[in-house]
Model the fold of this input.
Amino acid sequence: MNLIAIAPELFDPDVHQLPTAGELLLAGAHVKIDFAGVAHPATDGGHADGIVIDASIKGDVVEVAVMGEQQADGGFYFAEILVMLVV
Done:
């Protein structure tokens, strides 16, 4: 797996693939993406790859923001999302 960060508007489904939720992931959850491209909640104190933008159930694709920040209105600010390159 080749995990990279791109601006959301550069997402191309012929080139990029979003991670898959390994379980129910709520917006704002810090996640770690494994070698297979599956997002799991980051363990307490562990390194997180990013923050979930929208809630996803197990098996759904999930948008994960790099250094995302939740705003007071409940929305998220982020400049990049994590994707895998399709080989």
